[in-house]
């Protein structure tokens, strides 16, 4: 079906491997070249990390956490065979295209390349999501609205869930030229909104404090709610006599929430509160034991609840024992909130713009399984080091909140670039001896392979042997 409204831009139909490389050959790839680009690559497993340290990877199972070094477009296409429709939640925090990054194109070029770059990845990511999964994108004002339209196109406008506003800064920047920008957007999409539901959040101390028991009701603490509603219904407009004898009518244009008969039933059941002296406007008692087990998430998240950018930098510094630095981490409390709403322990969570690995760290600490992808070399001294420390039980970020003492494991892997050549060599092996030699060589080169549907060197051997 033809779409009624489309966002059109230059390079929309291309594949962008890397925004920095786009000006070179990136945008001139031919169709067959683009097809080749998205063929699955093998993963070279470097080591398995646990609290006890690094061990060689001799065998694999499909439930191990993965930290992958490599380009995320290639990684997404490579993960498809094993992880297609398996991921419960994807969180990404892509480069915001603020103009501060070092690719020196004119703004129009950068804007269009960035949109293509995101479109390519979101299309591939959608295939990895479970039918009841969700996608969360952290973004600022610069691109949020264009990105929303691109997401509508890929996920369907009907699957848009919310635009969460996160207060990322707590103090105003008075030297800002126009406005002091202190929020980010978090766009939330369901793969299928009919099948996705947010998990209720645990009630905060503040929310719990609203439930009291001034009349010693045996049903326990309660909070009182308004008994009037604005949608006027004459059947619900009647006078009420308080225990003190005062007669109260609903304000003009407003009526009571319930009919006279229902009101009397509620009074008989001790569910109407007329204030301490029995003289107040009637209110409805809502018992803590009867309300939904948690709170429905709101769309404004303050720094008090989920942290801010400075907090994120401090907790990362602590998690890395001050040995490395990363400029744009997100606070662990923010990811905790997201993972709590969108996933349960044991679910797969994916972040393919991993940066310092906040999503993976929070996933480990809260019992989710994770895949994290990062292309830059600092993955070793920042992301890998952080996750090693998490496994050893570091005490920063949400550790005290969740009682984290360490544990868990993950595999550190590299996306192989020479997979095609390798496969060609294996396919053209003349006999078993040659094949066996090749596989031995591969294994000695470090670890086992997965990619093109082969879970291990043994699978590979069985298939070709
Ligand atoms: C804003 S940071 C993410 C920060 C992260 N949320 C955290 O808490 O640390 C974006 C990251 O995406 C990475 N990135 C950008 N393009 C990528 C690509 N094509 N493949 C893999 N990683 C990429 C960047 O190197 C950077 O580390």
TrEMBL record:
Domain (DNA methylase N-4/N-6) spans 87-381
InterPro entries associated with the record: DNA_methylase_N4/N6 (IPR002941), DNA_methylase_N6_adenine_CS (IPR002052), N4/N6-MTase_EcoPI_Mod-like (IPR002295), RM_Methyltransferase (IPR001091), SAM-dependent_MTases_sf (IPR029063)
Which Pfam families does this chain map to? N6_N4_Mtase
Q: A GO term (biological process) for this protein?
A: methylation
Q: Give the molecular function GO annotations.
A: DNA binding; N-methyltransferase activity; site-specific DNA-methyltransferase (adenine-specific) activity
TM annotation in the entry: none
Which class of enzymes does this protein belong to?
transferase
Is this entry keyworded Transferase? yes
Enzyme Commission number, as recorded:
2.1.1.-
Reaction equations catalysed: a 2'-deoxyadenosine in DNA + S-adenosyl-L-methionine = an N(6)-methyl-2'-deoxyadenosine in DNA + S-adenosyl-L-homocysteine + H(+)
> Which UniProt keywords are listed?
Methyltransferase, S-adenosyl-L-methionine, Transferase
Family according to the record: Belongs to the N(4)/N(6)-methyltransferase family.
Please state what the protein is called. Methyltransferase
Q: What is the lineage of its organism?
A: Bacteria, Pseudomonadati, Calditrichota, Calditrichia, Calditrichales
């Amino acid at each position: 079906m033809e779409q009624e409204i489309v966002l059109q831009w230059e390079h929309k139909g291309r594949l962008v491997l890397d925004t920095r490389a786009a000006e070179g050959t990136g945008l001139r790839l031919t169709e067959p070249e683009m097809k080749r680009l998205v063929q699955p690559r093998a993963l070279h497993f470097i080591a398995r990390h646990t609290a006890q340290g690094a061990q060689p990877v001799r065998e694999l199972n499909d439930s191990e956490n993965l930290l992958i070094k490599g380009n995320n477009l290639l990684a997404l296409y490579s993960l498809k065979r094993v992880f297609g429709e398996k991921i419960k939640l994807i969180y990404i925090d892509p480069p915001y295209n603020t103009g501060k990054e070092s690719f020196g194109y004119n703004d129009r070029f950068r804007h269009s390349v960035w949109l293509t770059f995101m479109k390519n990845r979101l299309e591939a990511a959608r295939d990895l999501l479970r039918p009841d999964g969700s996608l969360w994108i952290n973004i600022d004002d610069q691109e949020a609205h264009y990105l929303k339209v691109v997401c509508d196109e890929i996920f369907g406008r009907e699957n848009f869930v919310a635009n969460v506003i996160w207060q990322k800064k707590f103090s105003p920047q008075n030297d800002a030229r126009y406005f002091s920008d202190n929020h980010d957007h978090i766009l939330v999409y369901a793969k299928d909104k009919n099948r996705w539901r947010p998990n209720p959040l645990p009630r905060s101390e503040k929310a719990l404090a609203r439930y009291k028991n001034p009349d010693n009701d045996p049903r326990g603490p309660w909070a009182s709610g308004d008994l009037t509603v604005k949608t006027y219904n004459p059947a619900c407009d009647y006078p009420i006599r308080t225990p003190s004898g005062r007669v109260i009518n609903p304000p003009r244009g407003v009526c009571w929430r319930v009919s006279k008969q229902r009101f009397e039933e509620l009074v008989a059941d001790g569910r109407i509160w007329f204030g301490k002296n029995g003289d107040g406007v009637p209110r409805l008692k809502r018992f803590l034991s009867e309300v939904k087990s948690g709170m429905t998430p709101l769309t404004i998240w303050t720094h008090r609840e989920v942290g801010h950018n400075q907090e994120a930098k401090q907790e990362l510094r602590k998690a890395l024992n001050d040995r490395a630095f990363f400029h744009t981490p997100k606070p662990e409390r923010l990811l905790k909130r997201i993972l709590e709403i969108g996933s349960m322990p044991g679910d797969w969570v994916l972040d393919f713009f991993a940066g310092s690995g906040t999503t993976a760290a929070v996933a480990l600490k809260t019992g989710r399984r994770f895949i994290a992808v990062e292309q830059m070399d600092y993955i070793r001294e920042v992301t890998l080091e952080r996750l090693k420390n998490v496994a050893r039980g570091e005490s920063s970020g949400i550790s005290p909140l969740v009682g984290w003492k360490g544990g868990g494991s993950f595999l550190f892997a590299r996306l192989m670039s020479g997979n095609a050549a390798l496969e060609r060599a294996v396919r053209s092996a003349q006999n078993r001896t040659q094949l066996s030699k090749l596989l031995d060589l591969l294994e000695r080169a470090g670890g086992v392979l997965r990619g093109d549907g082969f879970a291990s060197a043994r699978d590979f051997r069985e298939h070709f042997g």
